Amino acid sequence: MNFGMFTDFHVRQNMSQAEAFDESFRQVEEAEKLGIDSVWLSEHHFSPERSVLASPLVIASSIATRTQRVRIGLAVQVLPLTNPLRIAEEAATVDHISKGRFDFGVGRSGLTRYYQGYNVPYAESRSRFLEALDIITQAWTQEQFSYTGDHFAFHNVTVVPKPYQNPHPPIRVALASAETFSLVGKMGHAIFVSANTPIPQLQERLALYRQARQEAGHTGPADIALRIPAYVAETAEQARSEPEASTMHAIRYAATELITTAANPEIAVRMQRIANTPYDDILKQRVLYGTPEAVVDRLQEYQDALGITGVVLEMNYGGRIPYERVINSVRLLAEKVAPTFK
Which residues contact 46 (CB under 8 A, 6 or more apart)? Predict the structure, then answer.
């Protein structure tokens, strides 16, 4: 199982934007030293109270020069907001700078605020996403190509550089709505799924994904990464109490800020339901908090139920956990949890 650390480049209380960059870069460098397999970068816009991570490819490039071993992934690049040729160039460039340690995670985002800010109609998000992904793949695998779609048109373009990895970096798609599981399964891409969706529902949707993969002729096991908040501590009480304030901040933020810009009614309903859930129930259903032994047991349950091949762990859910506690949690994860699954 691949153990990945997700990072938002949070802006904590009383922290400047410069300090937010410095602390997050230190966290990534420490994660590599501790043995974490991969780091994953989010993408946020117009959220000064939350994150400074508006340009994940720029950040990925910097991480590539600061590290030697860890893989660097996007979770995710919001494709409908971009010019796909520019993204193809920049992502291939990061692939070279990292010497092939780059993973191209993509999605649409369920937040309309980003689209409103970029003046892109959210109603076009799916068609723009599919066109952009098709264009990027062609740009990476064809010497010269032309394309005509509903949103983009290019004539005899040659994208340089081509990726370092052959034929291109691994592509991983974030899935949320039920109808996209079969669609992406047919395309054969690896996927992210969220622990916010109940396990029985995920099992049903992953069955559709696997069936579509198989019917489309994609061989080999499905590559499924579970994104979930995680916190590991020496005692059960520490694992419960130390991330509580940050976790509840994240949930309140989702309820008050994100729910108003959620495009999918399913997402809005889910956020509202989570916002009304007591902390003890959150611990049982939505997060991966505990001693190393407890976290191993929970991860084994997820692996058995869903067939996951990796995890993308949000080690500072809410962004309010002190840096030293986050690093201690990452250390326990790397030393006492991950080896069980290698």
Answer: 113, 114, 117
Q: What is the CATH number of the domain that holds 183?
A: 3.20.20.30
How many structural domains is the chain composed of? 1
3-state secondary structure of 303: helix
Structural domain that includes position 276? 2-341
Per residue in 144-190, pLDDT (tens digit) is 999 999 999 999 999 999 999 999 999 999 998 888 999 999 999 99
DSSP secondary structure, 139-184, as one string = HHH-SSEEEE-SS-EEEEE--SSPPSSSS-SPEEEE--STHHHHHH
Cα–Cα distance, 8 to 56 (Å, whole number): 10
CB atoms within 10 A of CB 312: 25
The answer to pTM > 0.85 is yes
CA–CA separation, 141 and 315 (whole Å): 36
